[in-house]
User: Fold this.
Amino acid sequence: MQVDTDKIVVDFSRDGFYFPIDVLGKREVNSVRGQIQSVEEKYGKTYNLEDIFRGHAHLVMPILYDLACHPIITDAVTHLLGPDLLVWNTSIFIKEPKAETFVGLHQDLYYWGLDSNEEVTAWVAITPATLENGCMQFVAGSHKKAVPHFDTCNKNNLLSRRQELKARVKDIINVQLKAGQCSLHHGHTFHSSPPNRSEDRRIGFAIRYITPRMRQTQFSHDFAILACGQDKHRNFRLLPRPRGIFAKEEVKRMKAIHEIQNSIYMRDFDP
Ligand SMILES: O=C(O)CCC(=O)C(=O)O
Assistant:
């Protein structure tokens, strides 16, 4: 499927999202899934994979770094953010079969400490995302302003602060995707996802693109990778492509970065 760049720009600015975009073929997406699962088998007992998958797995898994720099995705996002793109973070969202876990209604940018809204998430379906397995739901036109969020005690909420926003919503769109397709959403688009009622896992890889103009307001420095174009601003320390899968030194560096970013978005969290 050819990407219609005019349509991306028009739809995204009206709705706060755009989908579907074909990114990976069957073999490629299966190899991403296979590598996530082999990491779980090999490193599940050594590392807290829940934590690593929540942030920065692309710094220890070259296949995810390459997906974050995939030209089909970055081309589409450059139409929304301009030619220069950094990836500030990534997350792997896994919902196990028949589990009660869900994602509460939220806006991404709310806790990230970044100084503007020049951010777009590409969510790549590593398995199909369907009504049955808890695909994301977007609220059309909700991206125009930031609204208050509340931390909750609901352990089934997959978000780090188990946060939710309170708002009356209509125009809820189910983001059904085939494996290998992606959706794009604005940092202020309200979105959530219900539990997985199917017999298989639902896996998505969320990539957080920002412009190099953005700044971190809550910490003296922050980190990113350069996905395409140039970084003339140097507001973020740029990180290289990982050399191996879970290479020891790279895991150590990734954990340090994760701790800094965690301290930013978990500030004042009182569970
Ligand atoms: O994977 C999901 O269901 C939610 C993902 C999400 O909240 C995000 O990418 O910002």
The chain has one domain: 5-265.
